Structures are given as structure tokens and as C-alpha cells.
Amino acid sequence: MRLRPALLLSSTVLAAACGGDGTDSHNFEAGTYAVSSATLASAADGCGLLGAYTDPEKVIGIAVENDTATFNLSNDAQAGATTLPTATLSSNQLTEAYEANYLISYGACNVRVKRSVTGELTDDNKANLTLSFNVARESGTCVATDTDFAALPCDSAYNFVAVKKND
Amino acid sequence: MKRVAFLSVAAALSLAGCNKQAEADLATCKSDLSKAQSSLTAAEDRATVAEGQLKSTQEQLAALQKTADEAAKAQMEKAEAGAKTQAGKAAKASAARATAKEDAAKAEIKSSAPATGTTVQQKAKRAGF
């Protein structure tokens, strides 16, 4: 009669010991993710785009392949590969894999954008993400008002929650 | 005898007169020579003064010429430097335009200046955010 509880206890202890840190890996699936709870993660919003992430209609696209997540921040199917930052997923942590680095031409002014996304999965298809980016003049004659950014050069970082939308 | 004596006396008197004339002529010559020497000395002095003035004038002319040459050289160098600066600026501007054109051609996103009233959402979308 005492053998069963002992076996049950020992198997539980063994499972806990062999199960690593005890956290479960959440599912992370490709799709369209709604953005919410966007806040400033940098000292100031130098680039001035936080408003786009506090917009309740804001969505981003996320593609997942093996352990790599690719973030299509404008959710634009035509977006070039070099404009999409990627992160490696491991133990629910998203660490920077590729910093997107691309040029935007505004007529006589060319600016270079560098951006990355990191974060962690807090549930299935739900992540706390941080977008960090900076923009600087690459060539030509640039005035910030002739671009989509509040200042040149500029730095900004935003924290936000991304939750997969039901397609 | 009387004739001989008369002739002798006449000759002596004649010789004495000649001697006096010669002495007077000599004094005149000496005086003229002295005047001529004085004139020569004065002329030489004037020539020396004139030479000095000429030398001074030549030195002044040389100094003026040197100053003019230096001014012209400085002006030329300034003009050349200015031309080089202008040329350098023009070359830099040209290179910058060429670079901007190349960058624009290879830009991943080709946009235009946002119109007045463009929302932050629209700006973000245009910039790939």
C-alpha cells in the first residue's frame, strides 16, 4: 500500500529534475499579429513613429521557420527581405539574428535604416517584443521634414505586445 | 761799337719785355687752369650727386618692382587657391550627387517627401514600419 505513493512521488521528482527549467515552450506560428500596449523603450522617441504602434489598428506580420522568426513590421507582402529583421527563438526567448539594414530614397535624400526585434513569448502566439531602430542620412541633401522621420539622425525603441490574430 | 751797344741794349730790353709778357701769359694760363680744375671738380661733384640720385632711384624702382611682383604673385596664388577651392567644391558636390543617385537607385524603398497632413501611421507604413 505504501509503494504506490512512493513511486508516484519519486517519478514526479524525477520528472521535475529531468524536465529542465520547468517552463514550457510556447507555440509561435506565422501570421498576422495585433499590436497593443506600445510604450517607449528608449529615452525619447527621436524618430517619432511610436504613434503608429499605439494605434489599435496596428498589425505586423510574423513568419516562423524552424527557430527563426521574421518580422514584417509594415505587414507588407512586397517588403524586401533586407528590410525584415529576424530573431532566433529558443526557450521562448527571441534574440536578434539579423539586423535589417536598408535604404529609403526620398528623392534627393537617402537615409539608412537599421532595426532589430527581440523579445520573449509569454504564451502561445503571444510575445512581448522590443523594436529598436535608428535612421541616419546616407547621401544627398536631407531635411527631416522631407522624410517620414521626426529628426535625422534619430534613434527610437518601442516595447509592445503582439498577439496572433485569428485568420 | 755804338751800334753794337745799341743793339745789345735793344735786345736786352726786348728780352726783358718778352719775359714779362711770358710771365703774364703764364699767370693767365695758371688762372685759367685753376678755373678749369674748379669747374671740373664741380662737374665731378654734380656727377657724383647725380649718380647717387640715380642709384637711389634705381633702388626705389627695384623695391617697387619687387613689391609689385610679390603682390601679383600673392594675387595669382590667391586666385589659384580660390579656383582650386571652387573646383574642389564642385568636384565634391558632383561626387555627392553621383553617390546620392546611386544610393537612390539601389534603395530598397523609394519614396517621396511626405505630403502635409500625412499621419504617423502613413509615415510608418511608407518607411516600412
Give descriptors for this structure.
heterodimer, A: 167 residues, eight-stranded antiparallel barrel, 2 helices, 13% helix, globular, disordered N terminus, B: 129 residues, mainly alpha, rod-shaped
Structure in words:
The complex is a heterodimer of chains A (167) and B (129). Chain A has 167 residues and is mainly beta. Chain A has helices spanning 3-18, 50-54, and strands at residues 31-40, 59-65, 68-72, 86-90, 93-98, 100-106, 109-123, 126-140, 154-164. An 8-stranded antiparallel beta barrel of chain A has the order 1-2-3-4-5-7-8-9. Chain A is globular, with a radius of gyration of 21 Å. Chain B has 129 residues and is mainly alpha-helical. Chain B has helices at residues 2-106, 120-126; one strand at 109-111. Chain A binds chain B through residues 48-53, 55, 57-58, 73-74, 76, 79-80, 82-83, 102-110, 113, 133, 138-141, 145-149, and chain B through 96-97, 99-100, 102-104, 106-114, 118, 120-121, 123-129.
